[in-house]
């Protein structure tokens, strides 16, 4: 079943583009990575799905319900961690979390103290006095305290130190194992690679590609590096791209029959050679050329 | 209506209500303390007033108010209270939803499982409650200051009650106009210049319409609709204008709900 369905969703802010004809879906129980550079429309998409803003055209639904009509119903099952966390400055952390919990039925005290323990959050401090990273932790606890079945994480790791990032990822994985669907927006590809099942790449308001993270990586692209005293400048073979020299090493991406490229390479006097899976980062850069 | 939001909003305004009520009390006590000396030597006072140009007297409502009577003198003070009430209400209306958008905290409530009308109603009722508390404190101080300084003077309680009532209508008008304006602009940034502009603007229109004797202008300003001099001399409101104001309040509030439902909440980043 699809938890999120987006159909030809378009948002313009006056004349400037937010997103254009965006279509994709997120399946129940998966961690969906949503990657793109700043200004590509990631936050716009999330804000549309949370009905903080209204679409210019197109339609989106969550749990099979239209986001513009059933917002409150949908949001009772949704947790949201904004990219930049702004809460009522004068409140204490505990007060804010209690205020947040009051909007969801049930008792969330235990859950709050569990999450605060994991994230090492001090409950008695004022929001005003918290560092950026600590505010982010409040955001994380606030987003998870009501046991949502769908989580929106908008650039969640910025401001968290590596140790906290790991704890946070463990927490997200733990939630995911319980069946929680995660929508993870980021421009750090490494973290998407570590966590996500599928990934959508957004660029200038349009979805460039949605694919399985393994397919994307194995999309028969290889990163090849060749060490040779000879000039490899005339290395023209269909499927070779992004050829450049780094000192004595020549590096390029190759997509196609691996035998052909090996034959071509062996026609030079080479000293060393690496063939690697490209990182998502590199594949990603590739989409931007 | 959500109780948690209501309580939160009410707590937020506690100190503001205290400051407004305190200022009104100070203003009233200061003015009313002068009443005994005023009424004692009215002949001299009238002489002073006669030297003022009629335009000046009209601007301050002195042409229709008899300062020798207690209700006349109270009515004169009341104009300044009206101005304070207008600024306070405009402030609350203008900041009702805009302050969270400027502080970038608006996302918090709007991502909870609450509809926008629920959020707006909770905030609105809380703000109106704060205004009502201000009114009650204001009435208490008014009655106390009248009792303290009236001396032998007799007064018509109905006139004072009518003035109090006009204060409530003032609150509602400026609150709803403020709210509507805040939703018509994309971002407020700062509320105070707007609320001062709205309240003083209305006051100046009223004062000028007195100077020019221009009938058309007076329909624009609540200060003219509820001119204390007129209320005291006629012992009633102008029904047509009250209906106009009530309609204005209802339309402004309804339009605010409509606009808020459709509003795009700007992203913090």
Any overview of this molecule?
- The complex is a heterodimer of chains A (289) and B (269).
- Chain A has helices at 42-49, 71-75, 93-101, 109-118, 132-144, 162-177, 189-195, 213-218, 258-266, 280-287, and strands at residues 2-13, 16-27, 31-35, 57-62, 65-66, 78-81, 150-154, 181-186, 198-203, 206-212, 221-228, 240-246, 249-255, 270-276.
- Helices cover 31% and strands 33% of the residues of chain A.
- Chain A is built from 10 helices and 14 strands.
- In chain A, strands 6-7-8-3-9-10 form a 6-stranded mixed sheet, sandwiched between helices. In chain A, strands 2-1-4-5 form a 4-stranded antiparallel sheet, with helices on one face. Chain A has a 4-stranded antiparallel sheet with strand order 12-13-11-14, covered by helices on one side.
- Chain A is of the alpha/beta class and 289 residues long.
- In chain A, 38% of the residues are buried.
- Chain A folds into 2 domains: 2-216, Rossmann fold (3-Layer(aba) Sandwich), CATH 3.40.50.300; 220-287, Alpha-Beta Plaits (2-Layer Sandwich).
- Chain B is an all-alpha fold.
- Chain B has one domain (3-262).
- Chain B is built from 13 helices and no strands.
- Chain B has helices spanning 3-33, 35-40, 42-51, 54-59, 70-102, 106-110, 116-149, 157-184, 192-212, 215-218, 222-225, 228-234, 239-262.
- In chain B, α1 (3-33) packs parallel to α7 (116-149).
- The longest helix of chain B is centred in the middle third of the chain and has 34 residues, at 116-149.
- The chains are: A alpha/beta (289), B mainly alpha (269).
